[in-house]
């Protein structure tokens, strides 16, 4: 069963995204909305990791050699200026998209297994991930004109 592999991807991915949200929050603290929203979204990621605990207990989270290639790198530093903010938010969007698909795939497996507890975990976490993507997309759209048309 490969469900454990994807549960492990979700757990590690949520940790990575949460850490990356915190990095962007502190790296762009002068943008109040980015600072506060990113910290709130990081807390959601922490809650997703906690929510996965029953699934990890039931299915495990083994890491095969082949699927190890499937991982997302987090942000270790932030860039400066308007274009830096745009690129950092874009990176967050890519990480959240990665998790959105992983939640979808695990959700399909949970439905196939008729695992109602796992379905509830996925529905809750995936709904919040969708919200994270929506905020990121909106914030990217707001930042793009200034960052791309005005020199720093």
Model description:
The protein has a single domain, classed as Ferritin, core subunit, four-helix bundle (Ferritin). Mean pLDDT is 90; it is low at 65-71. Helix content is 78%, strand content 0%. With 152 residues, the protein is mainly α. The relative contact order is 0.17. The protein is elongated, with a radius of gyration of 16 Å.
- Summed up, the helix count is 5
> On the 0-100 scale, what is the average pLDDT?
90
What is the fold named in CATH at topology level?
A: Ferritin
Q: Can you count the beta strands?
A: 0
How would you summarize what this structure contains?
With 152 residues, this protein is mainly α.
List keywords for this structure.
mainly alpha; elongated; 152 residues; Ferritin
List the helices and strands and how they pair.
Elements: H1 3-27, H2 32-51, H3 53-59, H4 81-113, H5 116-149
Helix pairs in contact: 1-2, 1-4, 2-5, 4-5
């Amino acid at each position: 069963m490969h469900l454990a592999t994807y549960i492990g991807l979700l757990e590690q991915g949520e940790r990575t995204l949460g850490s990356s949200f915190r990095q962007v929050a502190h790296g762009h603290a002068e943008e109040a909305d980015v600072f506060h929203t990113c910290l709130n979204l990081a807390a959601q990621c922490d809650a997703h990791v906690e929510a996965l605990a029953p699934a990890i207990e039931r299915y495990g989270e083994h890491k095969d050699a082949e699927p190890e290639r499937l991982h997302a790198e987090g942000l270790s530093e932030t860039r400066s200026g308007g274009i830096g903010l745009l690129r950092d938010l874009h990176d967050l969007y890519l990480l959240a998209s990665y998790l959105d698909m992983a939640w979808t795939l695990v959700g399909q497996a949970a439905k196939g297994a008729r695992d109602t507890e796992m379905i509830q975990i996925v529905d809750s976490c995936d709904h919040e991930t969708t919200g994270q993507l929506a905020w990121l997309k909106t914030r990217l759209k707001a930042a793009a004109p200034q960052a791309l048309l005005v020199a720093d």
